[in-house]
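User: Sequence for O-antigen flippase Wzx below. C-alpha cells please.
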Amino acid sequence: MFSATLFAQLINIAASPVLTRIYSPEEFGYFSFYLSVCALLIVYTTGRYEFAINTVKTEAESQQLFKVVTVFSTLFAVLLLAAEQLFYEPIIRLFKLEGASSLLLYIPLTLLVMGISQGLNYYLNKYKAFGVLSKGKVLRSSVTSGASIAFGFTGLQSAGLILANVLGYAVSNVYQTRVKKIGFLFNLREYKARSLARTAAQHKHYPLYNSTSAFFDNMAVQAPVFILMRFFSEAIVGFYSLTIRVAAMPISLISASVAQVFLSEIAELHAKGRSFLPVVKKVLLLLAGIGILPVVLLVIAGPWGFALVFGEKWRMAGELSQILAFGYYAKFVVSPLSVVFFVKQKVKLLSMIQGIRAISTLSVLWASSVYLNIKGVVFVYSIHELLFYSLYLFSIFHISRDNDHIRS
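Assistant: C-alpha cells for O-antigen flippase Wzx:
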C-alpha cells in the first residue's frame, strides 16, 4: 500500500512539469478551489459510515454499511446540486468564480464518485484486498494525469483538470468492482429503505461526531485556498496549490508512513505499562534531522527550482514555497507524533485542538488578507503554523509524560 501510494504520488509529480506548461496559474487556481471544496465536503458526503465497515463482524453488516455509504453519497450529491442552483449567484460573487462558474456543477458528481471510492476502499481493506487497492490507486493517478494532459490540448481549461479527476475515480471504482466481482453491491433491488435506515441509526455516532471533528481538521488545511480565492486572484491560488502539490504532499506521505510505525511501537509499550516518552523524543529528533535538507533547498533555491522545472511563469510559486517551508517543516516533524492522542485515548482533546486550529487559521488568514499583500499573508500563515505545531508538540509531550514515572 505504501509503495502504491508513493508510486501514485510520483506519477502526479512527474506529470506536473507538463501540466504547468499546458494550464495557466489561473486554471490551476480554479482547480485547487474545486479540490478544496471536495476535500471539505467529503466528510459529510458519506456520513463517515465507511469507518464502521471494518468494525462490524458479519459480511451482511459490511455490505449494508457500504450501501449506506452509497445512498448517503447519492443523496448528498443531489441535495448539494439543488443548493448550488438555489444560491448560485451569491456563491459565484463570494469566491469570484465568474471565470469558471461551471465548476460548481462538477462538485456534486465528484463527491459521488469519491464517496463510492471511500466505501470501496474500506470494504476491500476489511478483506485485505491490498493488491486490488494498490493497483486501483495507481490506476486512478495514471488516468487522472494522462487525461489531464490530453484534455489540456483540447482547450478545456480548468474543466479538463476537473473532468480528469472525476474520470480517475470512476475508472478506479469500476476496476476494483470488476476485479473483486462485487458488482452485486450496486444492485438497487437489494437496497431496502427500512433496513438501511436501521443500519444508519445503529452507527449514527459517525455522522454526528466523527464528521464534525474531520470537518474542522480539513477546514484548517483548506482554509488558505478559500481565503486566497476570496481576497486575491485565482492565479495566486494556483501558485499556492503548486507548492502543496510539490512540497506538502510528499511530506504528508512520509509523515503518514512514520506515524503508522510509531503508532505500533508506542501502543505496544503503553499496553505493557511502560513509558513511551523516550520513543517520542527519538522520533522527534529523527524527523527533525530528515526534514532539514528539503527546507534548506526550498529556502535557498525555491524560486529558481520552480522556474526551471515548471516554467518561468511559476517562479512566484517558488517564492511562496520559501516562506511556507518553515510551516511545512513543523508539520513534518510534529504530525506523526499526534497518534499519541489515540494511544492515550485523548480523542476529545484532539478534536478540541483541531477546532481551535480551524478557527485560528481562518481568523489569521482573513485578518492578514485585509491588510497585507500575498507574501505578507503567507508569512503570517507560516508563523501561525509554527506556533500551532509548537503548542501541539507541547500537548503531545504533556500527555506522554502521564506514565513517564513508570520505568521503561
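The mean pLDDT is 86.
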